[in-house]
Amino acid sequence: MGHAKLYFLALELLLVGGALCYLIGLWNRKSAGPLATLCSLGALILGALLWKTGGGVLIDYGSLPLVGGLSLDFRFQIGPFSGAMNFLALLFGFCIILYSLTYWRGKSDDPRFYAFALWAVAGTSMALLSRHLLVFLIAWEFVTLLLYLLVAIGGSKARAGAAKSFAMLGFGDAALILAIACLVARGGVRMLDIGYLQGLGRVTVSNWADIGLYLLF
Questions:
Q1: CA nearest 32: which of 122, 101, 119?
Q2: Burial annotation 88-101 (CB, 10 A radius, 16+ → b, else e)
C-alpha cells in the first residue's frame, strides 16, 4: 500500500470514526469508547508505518481552486522529523482516549467527547504534515474549535474555562492569519506553498516589516 493510501486511511479512521462515535453513541453510549479506541489505535499503527517508511515522501491529493488565484493544495510531507511528530500526536490522542475509558467508567458517557477527540487528532496530523499554508491554517482553526468544544463538554462551570482557552488560542490564531495575509501581500499566492518558501533558502531579516512578520508567525 502506497504512502498516499496509508495516510488517507489514517485520516479516514479518525474523521469517519469520530462521526460514527457521535452517531452510534446517540443510541448506545457505551459503544463509543471502544470504537474510538480501535480507530485511534488503527491510525497510530498507520502513523508508525508512515514514519518508518516515509523519509521525505510527498503526498499529493490535488488542489481545490478557490477565488482570485487561490487554491487549497492538499499536499503533505512525511519526513523523519514530521513523521515522528505526527506519530507522537497520534500516540498522545490514543493515550487520551484510553484514559477517558476509565474516566467515564461509572458515569454517563458522552459520545461527543470521543468524536471531538478523534477529529482534533486528525486536524493536528494535517496541520503537522501540510505543505500549504491555507490548508495548515484551516486544520489549525479546526483543532482550536474542537479544543473549545472538548473543554465545554464539562458543563456550565467548564464553559467559562473553555471561553478563556478559546480567547487565548484565538489571539494566536489571529496573529497567524495576519502573518499569512502579509506574506501573500508581499509575494503573491505562491508564498502559500511551503515548498516554495523552503526553496528561497536563507532569508535575511533586515527591516521592521520583516521583524513584524517574523514575530506574528
A1: 101
A2: ebbeebbebbeebe
**Cβ-contact 4, 61 below 8 angstroms:** yes
Q: How many CA atoms lie within 13 A of 164 on its CB side?
A: 5
Greatest alpha-carbon pair distance for the chain in Å reads 61
Q: How many other C-beta atoms are found inside a 10 Å radius of the C-beta of residue 81?
A: 10
Q: What number is the average pLDDT over the span 18-24?
A: 91
Q: Which residue has the higher pLDDT, 24 or 20?
A: 20
Residue range 55-113, pLDDT digits in tens = 778 888 988 888 777 888 899 999 889 999 999 999 999 999 999 888 877 666 688 89
For residues 169 and 127, the answer to whether their CB atoms sit within 8 Å is no
